[in-house]
# Entry
Amino acid sequence: MLKFLLFLGGLIFFHELGHYLMARLVGVTVLRFSVGFGPKLLGFKRGVTEYWLSAVPLGGYVKFFGDDPEDPPPGEDAKRGFLTTDLWRKTLIVIAGPVFNLVLPLLIFLPMHAAEPTLLPSVIGTVAVDEPAWKAGIRPGDRVTAVGDQDIKYWWELVEAVSAAPGQPIAVRVDRDGAQKTLTVTPKAVLLAGFKELGLESTVGRIEVAPERTLPIIVVGKGSPAEAAGLKDYDAVLAVDGRDVRSFDDVTAALAAAGGRAVRLTVAATKPDDSHPDEGRQVTLGPLGEGVAPGVRDGGLQLASVEPGTPADRAGLKAGDRILTMDGATYSDWVFLVQGLARDPSLTRRLEVDRDGVILPMTLSLANPAWEPGAAVPKYVATGAACRRAAVEPEAIPNDDRLRYAWHRSTTRTHEILVVTAAGIAGLLTGKVSVREMGGPIMIYDIASSSKGVEDFLGRLAWLSMSLGLLNLLPIPVLDGGHLLIFGIETVRRRPIGRKGRLIASWFGLAFLLTLMVVVFANDIERKWGILSRFTGQ
# Structure
């Protein structure tokens, strides 16, 4: 409950604080600023303004001098009245509330990101085989120091520089073991369509690299020399003869180069749902006879588990299947395949799978069959399949430019929230988004109470603040946008709207809001009832 009160009450309070501060700034008198609604619990008066703490702790309100059109302030006092002051003053006062909500995400994210002491370096951990970076000659372990004329130090800088150049050749300077190399890379144009239903798509550049170093995973043949040596399925290979390996190709090349001598492998067992391998152990493989295969193959895309009832299960995938292609493309690492799925979760994917030597075609859809407009479940879900992975995380480096990083991340996230929220509201108005998607206090309570940690709570607060700010700008009487509409009408008429006109507009606005409240409460109850009915068997 405390989270809910902080969530909703804090947003409305911040909104009203915008109105209050702007009124004070432009010289309009505030008679009362109340934290909460209803009867006064505590209060004091400073000058002409009363400051209240009211009984219902959900937001607050501001009462202005001169807000009755039938009783305007006389003479010189007109400038201090809300309805009788200059148009530009009262417009600024009205706009300030929504603007405060719109800038709140930026105020939340700035200190959050400025507090990050370290960041990932621009060191390449994994490169997808036969993708742009690989074809250009970039390899794991390379440190990117420049893209074009821009110096690069952190991973986020590399991502931004590449994203801005889809399909355009760019010069990438890398440091490889102390030697500088300049390589030409052409990022492929990738369509990001995570919000396709809202009409939001964007094309960015991708060279298919990842910061963590993925260790090669092996699968061992039954009765093979590898099994006899003590190697096991889903072991991660850390080194061969004391030399680090970065891909399965490194393993096979080292085994082939060994000839007739024994090879010492450093391997580590992997665990489900954990990318950190166990401590390494030493295994001696061979010497192998001429023409004897070691009996290991690449296990990086072999499924270790498939959860029942998930998209992977519905597609027919089983543990032990090895994914060969998705939509005709091959993948060298599970992380890149998952990224490919996430770029447009609405697509139905075509898979080719190797099951015990038999190639099987399958289709995979991430659509949640339990979802419908207004359902309290996600529209798309994770595959439910997992490969064993072992990743070495790069060592973070000091964040020496906190303000630049914080500003970039904060403005980027705020812009993203603004665009998605505006598209969602537009979708509701045009019918692209069902009204059953809307929610009221119960949904807000669920959003607030389900947050995990301060950062998650503040992130959700930022999304809801943006929604509140944009909704308040709609030209509906009793909302801030309705006030702006009335100001516009009065400007055209060259005279104020009387009490009767304002009452009619207010009743229209209240009727709309009451209808909206009925809809969102019905949606909330239906969501809750749907969840409860699954527990009760009804």
The radius of gyration is 30 Å.
